[in-house]
Amino acid sequence: MNEQWRSDNQIQLLINGEEFYPSVFEAIAQAREEVLLETFILRDDQVGSQLQEVLAAAAGRGVRVEVLVDGYGSAELSADTLRALSEAGVRVLAFDPSKPMLGMRTNLFRRLHRKIVVVDGEIGFVGGINFCADHLGDFGPMAKQDYAVQVRGPIVADLHKATLELMDQTSQVDRQHKPWLTERVPLQADSAHAKILLSVRDNNRHTADIEAHYLNAIRGARERILIANAYFFPGYRLLRELRNAARRGVKVTLILQGMPDMPLVRLCSRLLYNYLLRDGVVIREYKTRPLHGKVALVDRHWSTVGSSNLDPLSLSLNLEANLVIDDPTFNAKLYDHLAELAQKECKSIPLQRVLRGYWWRAPLIFLSFHFLRHFPAWIGLLPAHSPRLKPWTTVNEETASAPHLNPEKSL
Predict the structure, then answer these.
(1) Is residue 141 one of the residues assigned to a domain?
(2) Fewer CB in 10 Å around end: N or C, the chain?
(3) 389 strand-pairing partners
(4) Mind listing the pLDDT tens digit for each residue in 233-270?
């Protein structure tokens, strides 16, 4: 890890699409120089249409607008949408695009899973929320519960640099990683002096940075650990540190999916319950709607919000981005929200219930732990992966006649 802490940042917690989308759209509407946007999923729905409108309007008034989407997660974007964005002056790139084979997409792994927006180099957004309608409450019972943050201050320069470094792999443009400073209405922040660092996971120099921050924070915990994570199937080291923290008297609480969008995910997570519960870890399953969050806090200062799940895809394959926050005010805000969620909208999982049928699950649990113990080494044996970015309009023209499947549920 070689990230740098940045002091004196403003930060605001954004809960679900109802708070995230208006904040992003307003920032883009005020853009004067540049809009950079990375997302895993962009869909042709009410949210995607609103985003298209504000991006096109920004490009129309001379703002440089660049969008990077994942070739798998956003494969269903229509040719009309892509054409309209291109004609408006928006540069749209696809990460690892590929043609379907026999109607099936082949780019299942090593996805661009980051969700980052940077406007004029001075305001940024990071979290787990995609640009699609299933992050809105009126989507119905399967609307996602999710989180992001809005930031201003020195940390935005790091977001700006990280996004440009990825986008510029496809161009010969030599751009300065220097933000434009403009006068804006101050952010109504939860904290105005937060210390923040940007941690990314890639398949080159930062293969385990986000996991390392989790491990360091958990090892140093003295009072409380609260993790809300959608897809929980972490490495063996992280499981062991959670158990060890509970053994030394730390209150360890996990908020996991109880109403999953992918049932297999909950099955995998539940294979780990007995190992954690028997040493005092508290597990609560969120039942109101699918949990899509990727947030955590330790003690009264450390927090993280971002795109990384605690599963093999996020920890070993995908491109991810989390903000790590050292700030007691933000920590308290996040804790109050998650504690209320755990108390009012979650079901507690007792050890007695997990032990029922233990003889049937024992072989699966045994295999799961050996998988988690050795998975990082196995991934290291795979060939190095150089991400490919391509103008999305070109990709769409090449695959317009090919049959597509619906994208996997949002990760």
Answers:
(1) yes
(2) N
(3) 95
(4) 888 899 999 999 999 999 999 999 987 666 666 666 67
